[in-house]
Amino acid sequence: MVLFSSWKGEVVDNRGRSPQDAVEPKAIKLPEEFFKGEKVKAFFGWDGIVIRDPSVDLLEMALKYSEVLAKESCGKCTPCGFGWRLVRQILEGMAKGETGPEYLKVLEDLCQFIRSSSRCSIGQTGPVPILHLIQYFGEELKERISSKRLPSGGRYRYGVTAPCLNACPANLDIPRYVEEIREGRYEESLETIMRGVCLPGTLGRVCVRPCEANCRRALVDGPIAIRLLKRFVADYRRGRALRTQVGERERSGKRVAVIGAGPAGLACAYYLALKGHGVVIFERHESPGGMAFYGIPSYRLPQEILLEEVDWIKRHGVEMRFGVTVGKDVTLSDLLREFDAVFIGVGAQGSGRLGVEGEEAGYRGLIPGVEYLYKVNTGVDPYPEGKRVMVVGGGNVAMDCIRASFRIGKEDVHLVYRRSRAEMPADPEEVKDAEEEGVKFHFLCNPKRIIAEGGKVVAVELIRMELGEPDESGRRRPVPVPGSEFVIETDILVPAVGQVVDLSFIRPEDGIEVSRRNTIIVDPETLQTTREGVFAAGDCVTGPDVLVRAIAGGRKAADRIDRFLRGEPLGATEAEKFQEFFSAIGVFDPEEKVGVPGGMERREPEKLDPERRKHTFEEVEKGFGPQEALQEASRCLKCYRIGMIAY
Predict the structure, then answer these.
(1) Deepest in the core among 133, 199, 568, 643, taking most CB within 10 A?
(2) Which domain holds residue 514?
(3) For residue 550, what is the domain's CATH number?
(4) How far apart are CA 318 and CA 146, in angstroms?
């Protein structure tokens, strides 16, 4: 039962009420536990306080909270930097019995001053819990101070987050690296980024940027161009040939085998190498990068960018063996005999099926989406005699297929999607770019039958759809409209309706359990499979997912493998648990009235003209220069939030 809550202005006071009569807060759903068996007794955060256990020493918790704020304040503005030290001194005096209740008014005025005059959110939101304590627990505080009781010695944990940081699968410290750009400290900014992701130039081009959807600046005049700022610092170093030296590290003597040189495998290898372990990557293709290399066209991600970043990973001592197929050239059991641990990071490089009439007939011109992109990215026209293309799907693979088609000389390009534009999972920017390049979109349509002549695709029969009730994904289910069939002529049909993982290299004797979805089963906290010493992350665990989540999974696996090799517990870190905790509470409020004057519009990058770019693989989007990056970084509101629990 919640004894008291003031979260987001909703005051719920159950003091004096029986559990049967207690009211549950609607503004916050506070998790019951932090770590397993660790009850959350109280929470102080950016939008108020939540108290569950009456035994919590609120004065002591306020003191501990002020100590955290003083520690985390950057000190660049006086109200926050100096003010929190004063708050801490006052609360410390109260806790020691050296300062009387009359100082509560001084404390309140000081917190109001910090809140109204600080430049960032640590100062603007940090005072809220203390102000709420004074407002709603004033008499209890006076009694507690007057009693001169010693602090209870409670246990507390705190975490730092931000709306953008919490939304990032890799939990990048975005406000920090953006501020470092604003201050011209580009190398430090890149170091901040690379503590979380090892492919900054790659992600700076193709990340789906969930952070920007949770940017508070979007509630004023547009989100910060976070992805482009990441690209800027990566390109800045590259453009100036700044080759940071790789420092010598003490070697652990342990060796880890990594299966797959895609984003998850590269990340795992890089962060293991930083920890001093020997790493060997086994890759069946002749180039690294997985779907980032073979599946993303160079007009979005030039291959040299990715290869240069892979070279940086190799410089840390990571060995890469190409043309090696695990399960054929070497078995998983062989690797376990040679190495101290194994990481599986294979991607989803197979294509899903349409399930329509004629799909199994082997017609020429029917080319799965992943295969289509693989051939395009290796310089091969998948079907030279075909000039008309129809792609089926609504994700980023479908977008890449249709936009790449013009660039290999196809004249007539169609996209068919069974839902409406609003339901498309593809990046809206990619959809907009495809429209500008002349792709013809057919929404609320679905293939019904492939029409062929002489063993070749010549047309597709489609049926119109309407949206029914929501399905398990939360989107409205498309339902065929009887009698609405129509035909579109085409030479090439490209299904891009999903990707599948190939786990055929796993043998029964390997002892690795696979789910009904054909993904590897792992412990969600340790990422260890059902075989001790074998870990997995990325698409082979989650199913087809975004690149940044694969990198985040690889980095997390590196942490767990490192601890496994050192004989340490493998459970979740406190930082990881806090991000889960904050996600459960909700960090970004789309209804918030930010109260910041607008007028600093988001800078958009220059792009090649649609009529020019659709016929070339030259990179479409130009990055920021130093002046543009400075102006964009200056729009950041630095929205850090501090949360503390008593347990």
Answers:
(1) 199
(2) 255-349+501-571
(3) 3.50.50.60
(4) 63
Do 382 and 275 meet the contact criterion of CB atoms below 8 Å apart?
no
Shared domain for 45 and 117, answered yes or no, is yes
The bridge status of strand 388-392 relative to strand 412-417 is parallel
- Nearby residues of 76 by Cβ (< 8 Å), 6 or more positions away: 119
Residues in Cβ contact with 472 at an 8 Å cutoff, skipping those fewer than 6 apart: none
- 462 and 523 share one domain: no
| Residue 53, helix vs strand vs coil | coil
3-state secondary structure of 46: coil
Question: 423 lies in a domain?
Answer: yes
Q: Strand, helix or coil at 359?
A: helix
Indicate if the pLDDT at residue 244 is higher than 70.
Answer: no
Q: What percent of the chain has pLDDT over 90?
A: 92
Binning the chain into helix, strand and coil, the percentages to the nearest 5 are 40, 20, 45
Residue type, 354: L
From the CB of residue 277, how many other CB atoms can be counted at a distance below 10 Å? 26
413: Cβ contacts below 8 Å, ≥ 6 apart: 388, 389, 391, 402, 405, 406, 438, 439, 440
Tally of structural domains, the chain = 3
Q: Are residues 453 and 366 in the same domain?
A: yes
DSSP code string of 310-330: HHHHHTTT-EEEES--BTTTB
Q: What span, in angstroms and rounded, lies between the C-alpha atoms of 415 and 441? A: 5
- What's the whole-number mean pLDDT along residues 347-355? 89
Residue 341 lies in a domain: yes
% of the chain at pLDDT higher than 70: 99
Helices (DSSP H) in 240-317: which residue ranges?
A: 263-274, 291-294, 303-314
Question: How far apart are the C-alpha atoms of 234 and 230, rounded to whole Å?
Answer: 7
Pairing of strands 641-646, 42-45: antiparallel
CA distance 184 to 192: 14
- pLDDT reported for residue 291: 93
Identify whether residues 121 and 47 lie together within a single domain: yes
The 10s digit of each residue's pLDDT in 266-283 is 999 999 999 999 999 999
Which is it for the CA torsion 583, 585, 591, 593, positive or negative? negative
Q: Is 173 left (phi over 0), alpha (psi -120 to 50) or beta?
A: beta
Tens-digit pLDDT profile for residues 74-125: 888 888 989 999 999 999 999 999 999 999 999 999 999 999 999 889 999 9
The mean pLDDT value for 225-238 works out to 95
- 611 φ, ψ to 5°? -70, -25
Q: For the whole model, what pTM was predicted?
A: 0.94
